[in-house]
Design brief:
Chain lengths: 295, 272
C-alpha cells in the first residue's frame, strides 16, 4: 500500500476564495493598467482609445527620462550602502555575543515603522531651520539639504538605508547561521585568521542570500514612493522626481490617468523581471517540488 | 575552541546602534519639550522643559479619529487574511491538482506586483463600485496585497507538519475538512501568528491606498494624518513628532509581544 493513494487530499476549491479575491483586486487592475496605458482618461469623461500616444509622449518627455535615471541612481545607491552594512551587521548578529539580544531589539525598530513615520521623522530632524543641520553647521554647512539635488538624493538614500538595513541584516543573519561550523574549524586548524575566514568562508557562503537581498533592494528601490512624496515632493524642481512619484504626479495631480498608467506598467515590467529572478535564484518555485516525495 | 571577541565588529554594531538609537531618542525627547524650547535650543540639546501638550495636541487635531479608522482597517484586513489564507496554504501544501499549482504560481508572481502598479485602475474600480472615500475601499485592496506574502509564510509553516500525521488521520477515515480543522490549523499556530502580525503591520502602515482612495477627514487613517499634519503644521515640529510617536505605539507594543513571530516571518521573506 503506497502512502500517496490513501491520503485524503483537499481539492482546488480550498484555494479558490483567495484566488478569486486576489484576481479581483490585483490581477484585474493589472490587466486594466495595460489597457489604460493606451487610453486617454481625465477621470471625468469616459476613457478614449489613443493608441501609443501616451507611450511616445513619455519617450520624448525629459522629466520621464530623468526620472528613470534618478530611479536607477537611487536604487544603485541603496544597494551600495545597504549591502556591505547589512552583511557586516548580519554576520555579527549571527554570533553569540551577550549584548546581542538587547541590541537587536532596538535594531529592528526602523523596520517596523511606516515609511510615512520614518520620512516625517527625518524631514523634521533635517529641517534647515529647526533641525540638526542648524545645530551642526560644522558638519552640514549652512546649506538646505533639501534645496540641492545632490544632498536631497543623499538624504533619500540615507533614509531608505536607515529603514531597510535591519531587514537585510535579518537575511544575512539567517544565512550566516547556516554556514557549517566545520568549515571554520578546518580553517582554524590551518591557522587562518578571522579576516581570512570572513573573506574565504563566510562571504562565499552568503552568495545566495546576497542575491536574494539585492534583488529585494532593487524591487524596493524601483517602487519607493512615500519617502520622496514626504521628504522632497520630487524637488527641488524635478531633481528627485523618480518614476513612481512621476506616475502619481501625472495621474492624481495632473489627472492624466493614461500616461500615469503607462508609467505604472513600465514599473510593473521592471519589477516583474527582477522578481522572476528572485523566484529562480531563491528557489521559491522549487520548494514545492522538493517536498513532493515527502508529503 | 574559544573564539576571541571580535572588537571591530562590536564597535561597528555600536555605531549602528547609535545611528538608530539617537534619532529615536531625539524623537522621544522632542515630543516631551515645549515648542519654544525646541525652536530655541534645537533638537539635540538637553531639554529644559517638560510637557505632554504635543500628545494632547495630536488628539485635538483629529488623531483619535484616525486611530479608530486605522484600527478598523487593520482588524478587517487581518480578519480577511485569516479567512482566506489558511485554506489557500492548505491547498498549496496538500493538494496535488494542476489548478492549485497554477494558483500558487499566480501568488508567487503576485509578490512582484507593487501597489503603485495598480493604483490607477484601483481608483477606477473602487470609484465605480461606489467605495471611494469608504474604509471598505481601503480594506479590500490592502488585503489583496497581503495575500501573496501571507500565503508564502503560512504554506512554509504547514510544510513542516509531519506527513505521518496526515496518514494516521486518513486511516481513521478523516476528510480533508476534518484534517484542516483538527490537524493543520492547530499545528500551524506559529505560522498563523506570523501572518497576523505581518498583515496587521502592513495594514497599520499602509499609505498609498488610503492616499488615493479616501478624501474626507472621516475616513482618514493615521499615516495620512501624519502626512497632512506635516503639510499643514510643518513648523510645529514637536507636535508633528508627537503624532509620529503616537503612530508607532501600537506597532511597538505588538513587536514587544510578538517579536519572535515577526522576526521569523521577515526572515522568511529572504527565502530561508
Amino acid at each position: 500500500m503506497t502512502t500517496q493513494t490513501t491520503s485524503a487530499r483537499p481539492g482546488f476549491v480550498w484555494a479558490l476564495p483567495a484566488a478569486v479575491f486576489f484576481a479581483l483586486f490585483a490581477i484585474v487592475p493589472l490587466i486594466m493598467v495595460a489597457v489604460l496605458s493606451f487610453m486617454s482618461w481625465d477621470g471625468i469623461s469616459p476613457p478614449e482609445f489613443v493608441g501609443t500616444d501616451n507611450w511616445s509622449r513619455l519617450a520624448d518627455d525629459p522629466v520621464m527620462l530623468n526620472s528613470v535615471w534618478l530611479t536607477l541612481l537611487l536604487t544603485a545607491l541603496g544597494v551600495a550602502l545597504q549591502t556591505p552594512l547589512s552583511i557586516l551587521l548580519g554576520v555579527w548578529a549571527a554570533g553569540h555575543q551577550r549584548n546581542r539580544a538587547v541590541l537587536s531589539v532596538i535594531y529592528f525598530i526602523p523596520l517596523l515603522l511606516s515609511a510615512t513615520a520614518v520620512s516625517v521623522l527625518w524631514r523634521a530632524l533635517l529641517d534647515p531651520n529647526f533641525g540638526i543641520p542648524a545645530d551642526a553647521t560644522w558638519l552640514f554647512g549652512d546649506g538646505n539639504l533639501f534645496g540641492e539635488q545632490a544632498t536631497a538624493i543623499g538624504v533619500l538614500a540615507f533614509v531608505s538605508t536607515w529603514q531597510f538595513t535591519p531587514f537585510h541584516t535579518l537575511i544575512y543573519q539567517g544565512a550566516a547561521r547556516a554556514v557549517p561550523q566545520v568549515l571554520y574549524q578546518a580553517a582554524e586548524v590551518d591557522g587562518a585568521g578571522r579576516y581570512r575566514q570572513f573573506f574565504h568562508i563566510t562571504l562565499p557562503q552568503l552568495r545566495t542570500a546576497m542575491i536574494t537581498s539585492m534583488i529585494l533592494m532593487i524591487v524596493g528601490g524601483l517602487t519607493t514612493f512615500e519617502t520622496v512624496l514626504i521628504l522632497t515632493q520630487g524637488g527641488p524642481g524635478t531633481d528627485t522626481t523618480i518614476s513612481a512619484y512621476y506616475m502619481y504626479d501625472k495621474a492624481f495631480k495632473s489627472f492624466d490617468y493614461g500616461t500615469g498608467s503607462a508609467i505604472a506598467l513600465a514599473l510593473v515590467v521592471a519589477a516583474t523581471v527582477v522578481s522572476l529572478i528572485v523566484v529562480r535564484v531563491s528557489g521559491y518555485d522549487k520548494m514545492r517540488s522538493s517536498m513532493e516525495g515527502v508529503s | 575552541m574559544r573564539r576571541r571577541p571580535n572588537y571591530l565588529a562590536g564597535a561597528g554594531s555600536f555605531v549602528w546602534l547609535l545611528l538608530v538609537g539617537l534619532p529615536l531618542y531625539v524623537l522621544l525627547a522632542a515630543t516631551l519639550r515645549t515648542r519654544q524650547d525646541y525652536a530655541d535650543n534645537g533638537p539635540v540639546s538637553i531639554p529644559d522643559s517638560f510637557t505632554l501638550d504635543n500628545y494632547t495636541g495630536a488628539f485635538d487635531s483629529g488623531f483619535g479619529r484616525y486611530f479608530l479608522n486605522t484600527l478598523v482597517v487593520t482588524a478587517c484586513v487581518v480578519g480577511l487574511v485569516l479567512l482566506l489564507v489558511p485554506p489557500l496554504a492548505y491547498a498549496i501544501v496538500r493538494s496535488r491538482g494542476r489548478v492549485t499549482s497554477a494558483v500558487f504560481r499566480l501568488f508567487l508572481l503576485g509578490l512582484a506586483i507593487p501597489a503603485q502598479a495598480v493604483i490607477v485602475p484601483m481608483f477606477y474600480l473602487i470609484s465605480e463600485a461606489g467605495l471611494y472615500d469608504n474604509l471598505l475601499g481601503v480594506i479590500l485592496p490592502t488585503t489583496a496585497f497581503c495575500l501573496p506574502m501571507s500565503a508564502l509564510i503560512l504554506s512554509g509553516a504547514m510544510r513542516d507538519i509531519s506527513p505521518e500525521l496526515f496518514e494516521a488521520m486518513t486511516m481513521d477515515g478523516a476528510t480533508p475538512r476534518r484534517m484542516f480543522f483538527q490537524l493543520v490549523v492547530p499545528l500551524s499556530r506559529g505560522g498563523l501568528s506570523t501572518i497576523v502580525v505581518f498583515s496587521a503591520l502592513q495594514a497599520w502602515n499602509g499609505f498609498l491606498f488610503p492616499l488615493v482612495l479616501t478624501q474626507s477627514d472621516a475616513t482618514k487613517v493615521v499615516t495620512l494624518g501624519l502626512y497632512n499634519f506635516q503639510t499643514e503644521h510643518g513648523i510645529d515640529i514637536p507636535g508633528l513628532l508627537g503624532a509620529v510617536v503616537l503612530s508607532m505605539v501600537p506597532v511597538l507594543l505588538v513587536y514587544l509581544f510578538a517579536r519572535r513571530a515577526l522576526v521569523q516571518g521577515l526572515m522568511g521573506v529572504g527565502g530561508k
